[in-house]
UniProtKB/TrEMBL annotation:
<dbReference type="InterPro" id="IPR003607">
    <property type="entry name" value="HD/PDEase_dom"/>
</dbReference>
<feature type="domain" description="HD-GYP">
    <location>
        <begin position="517"/>
        <end position="716"/>
    </location>
</feature>
<keyword id="KW-0175">Coiled coil</keyword>
<dbReference type="InterPro" id="IPR001638">
    <property type="entry name" value="Solute-binding_3/MltF_N"/>
</dbReference>
<protein>
    <recommendedName>
        <fullName>HD-GYP domain-containing protein</fullName>
    </recommendedName>
</protein>
<feature type="transmembrane region" description="Helical">
    <location>
        <begin position="253"/>
        <end position="276"/>
    </location>
</feature>
<keyword id="KW-0812">Transmembrane</keyword>
<keyword id="KW-1133">Transmembrane helix</keyword>
<dbReference type="InterPro" id="IPR037522">
    <property type="entry name" value="HD_GYP_dom"/>
</dbReference>
<dbReference type="InterPro" id="IPR029016">
    <property type="entry name" value="GAF-like_dom_sf"/>
</dbReference>
<dbReference type="InterPro" id="IPR052020">
    <property type="entry name" value="Cyclic_di-GMP/3'3'-cGAMP_PDE"/>
</dbReference>
<dbReference type="Pfam" id="PF13487">
    <property type="entry name" value="HD_5"/>
</dbReference>
<feature type="coiled-coil region">
    <location>
        <begin position="280"/>
        <end position="342"/>
    </location>
</feature>
<keyword id="KW-0472">Membrane</keyword>
């Protein structure tokens, strides 16, 4: 009887082991899952086939759109489905296995008509998404992400990722949302481009019908645990097979993107240095040629030629400084490499990857904006981003101006009070590396009592302070401070702080280099203006007044700050071509002959000899070449009409006429402001209001008194 019982038990076990017929569903998501020769292939199916072969399970695969697979699994028509990210809503309907197969995250793709660099640019765009996709409808999916930013767009729903890619390649939609791994493996196939925008990191699992025996789930987890522990297991062979070592769940792909982007930036900077070298060499040769021409034609211009020689020497010094900057750029590359190593170490923590992923991406996407903005904006933004990543209670950022310690921004502290403090630089706790200080208040012994009381009112009490000094070229220029009421800063916080220190200092250095380049160009422009002033003493002060008044009008037209600065710097060059006009014509009293007038008009064309073939001098060339064009087409040298004339030339045109009418010239006495204003508004035999842009003329009318005051002040000085 005992033998019969044992036999029945063994038979039961035998039947149980060999009787599992499992209906498994999935959707097209190459290389995670896909069909080939009417068979389901991919990472998940290969792993499941390996387990089922070991356990003697019979697998029947079905591949349909994701939404249909989830419906059939919920209705009990399927036992298992893959590959799905976890969500609370899904866990109420399905069971998940415990051990994830692979990590993935959402990525933004565009066609070559679009250039998307931030989520703000989604506004009013058509966005392709897959029905039921977690990257679409999930808690942190694109829909909730954009709603959180208050961004509205038009969602176009598709059954598969392939349909999204096809629509994107045919320009039916502007933007496509697909998983990172799918996009990486398929982007070349559809001739689309990825962006640096990524979101919602997830892990992919098997999901099961509520009716499936838990022993099946436990068996799958058991095999996954063993395979992932063994680096030589079939699990890693399958990943290598489909991902070609591009998408293993070890280091997120965006780290490689940052590294590649950094290397590209360094390459571009080297190329800029090389290009500037060629530009300077070419410009130097042109100036030398012009010098020889002037010496041969006009003996009276010897003094101006000496000035041009001096300019050449300064340009050569500029080139030498640019050569020195190569070494600086190499140091920057090493700093960025060091930063990436720090990030690589930090990313070994899964918790860090999930909680701080978005903030780190935000820094990467804002670097180009930081380089264009003032240092105070950069310091404020770095504080706002880093305080969440470092997980601090409070924070502040400050700068040093001369011997003064000035607060720029604060979170948690009272920035209104802090900005009113008169603090000496020597009061700051003196550190040169990232450092944690306990009870930092005890070191405030040098601060005067009255100032210290105000400081205590503005700063909340804390036990631990994390200090990040920002040093550029050996000079401490700013600092960031994080404060915790009681909790200590972790080693991970300190490493992240070091990364922020390196990144902030690198951006500040780069801004300084770019500003030096721009100053060099402006200095060269000033030297040319000095040459023109020395050549034509009658109109010398005229060019300075034109610069200041042109800047005033440009601001009233709400032109962007960069254009206003260029108009201010380059409008004094509007008559630079006159250095090629003989002095006997420039200073002639009385009316010019037709031949002399034709020579005089060529001064606009002569400006090309000095300013052409240089992108940075484009605004300067437009001003010098077109400032005698008139809005009604009656000007010279090209008879341009309306807005075919660059806006900078339109501004300088009216200012040039205003100043000329108010100035003494060999052929006329100076007019009063009132008479000059009436000529501009109502016209006379020579000047008509139709010569000017109506919008600019309106500004001249509305701000007549301010313009008169500015002119009188400049003339007085």
């Amino acid at each position: 009887m005992k033998k019969i019982s044992i036999g029945i038990f063994i038979l039961f076990i035998f039947i149980r082991v060999f009787s599992y017929n499992l209906n498994v569903g999935t959707y097209e998501n190459y290389p995670i899952s896909f069909t080939k020769d009417n068979n389901v292939k991919g990472i998940f199916s290969d792993i499941l086939n390996f387990i089922s072969e070991k356990e003697h399970w019979n697998i029947n695969y079905t591949i349909k759109p994701q939404k249909n697979i989830m419906k059939e699994l919920e209705d009990g028509n399927l036992d298992i489905a893959f590959a799905f990210g976890y969500s609370l809503e899904r866990s109420k309907i399905f069971n998940y296995n415990t051990i994830p197969i692979i990590s993935d995250w959402g990525e933004v793709y565009t066609n070559y008509k679009e250039d998307i660099t931030s989520f703000k640019e989604f506004s009013n765009k058509s966005v392709g998404v897959m029905k039921s996709d977690i990257f679409y409808e999930g808690k942190n999916g694109i829909k909730n992400l954009l709603n959180g930013f208050g961004i509205k767009c038009n969602y176009i729903e598709y059954d598969t990722y392939d349909e999204i890619m096809i629509a994107l390649s045919k320009n039916i939609i502007d933007i496509g949302i697909v998983p990172r791994i799918y996009g990486l493996m398929n982007e070349k196939k559809y001739n689309i481009k990825d962006t640096t925008l990524m979101f919602y990191p997830i892990e992919l699992f098997f999901i099961f019908s509520k009716n499936v025996d838990n022993s099946i789930i436990n068996t799958i987890d058991m095999y996954l645990k063993k395979m992932k522990y063994d680096s030589n297991s079939i699990y890693y062979s399958i990943l290598d097979k489909y991902l070609q070592k591009n998408a293993k769940n070890k280091v997120p792909m965006w780290i490689y993107i940052i590294i590649i982007s950094s290397v590209m930036i360094i390459f571009i900077l080297f190329f800029i240095v090389y290009l500037l070298k060629k530009i300077v060499s070419k410009k130097t040769k042109k100036i030398k040629d012009q010098k020889e021409e002037i010496e041969a034609s006009y003996e009276e211009m010897q003094a101006q030629n000496e000035q041009l020689k001096s300019n050449n020497l300064e340009l050569e010094n500029m080139y030498n400084e640019m050569e020195k900057s190569k070494k600086k750029l190499e140091e920057k590359y090493n700093e960025i490499t060091s930063l990436n190593n720090i990030l690589d170490i930090s990313l070994k923590s899964e918790e860090f990857e999930h909680k701080r992923f978005k903030k780190l991406l935000e820094i990467n996407s804002k670097i180009s904006d930081f380089l264009k903005r003032e240092n105070d904006f950069l310091l404020s933004e770095m504080l706002k981003i880093s305080i969440n990543v470092i997980n601090s209670d409070y924070g502040s950022v400050y700068k040093f101006v001369g011997n003064k310690w000035i607060f720029v921004d604060a979170i948690g502290h009272d920035i209104g009070i802090l900005k009113t403090l008169d603090l000496d630089k020597k009061y700051v706790f003196d550190v040169y590396n990232v450092e944690v200080v306990e009870n930092i208040e005890r070191y405030n012994t040098e601060i005067p009592k009255s100032t210290l009381e105000k400081l205590k009112k503005g700063i909340k009490k804390s036990r631990y302070t994390l200090l990040i000094p920002l040093i550029v070229n050996g000079e401490k220029i700013a600092g960031i401070s994080f404060d915790n009421k009681e909790k200590k800063f972790t080693n991970e916080d300190i490493e992240i702080a070091k990364a922020f220190k390196t990144l902030s200092e690198t951006i500040l250095k780069q801004k300084k280099y770019e500003n030096n380049f721009k100053k060099s160009y402006v200095n060269f422009a000033n030297k040319l203006a000095m040459v023109a002033e020395a050549h034509d003493e009658i109109t010398g002060n005229h060019i300075e007044r034109v610069g200041i008044l042109s800047e005033f009008i440009a601001k009233k037209m709400n032109l962007n700050e960069e254009m206003v600065i260029k108009i201010r710097n380059f409008s004094p060059l509007h008559d630079v071509g006159k250095i090629f006009i003989p002095l006997n014509i420039l200073n002639k009293k009385g009316k010019l002959s037709d031949e002399e007038w034709n020579k005089m008009k060529k001064h606009t064309l002569y400006a090309r000899k000095l300013l052409e073939d240089n992108e940075y001098f484009k605004v300067a060339l437009n001003i010098a070449l077109y400032h005698h064009e008139k809005y009604d087409g009656t000007g010279y040298p090209f008879n341009l009409i309306g807005d075919n004339i660059p806006i900078e030339a339109q501004i300088v045109s009216i200012v040039d006429v205003y100043d000329a009418l108010r100035s003494n010239r060999p052929y006329k006495e100076a007019f009063s402001h009132e008479k000059t204003f009436q000529i501009l508004v109502n016209g006379d035999g020579r000047t008509q209001p139709s010569h000017f842009n109506p919008e600019i003329l309106k500004i001249f009318i509305n701000y007549e008194k301010e313009i008169e005051s500015i002119y009188n002040q400049i003339f007085k000085n």
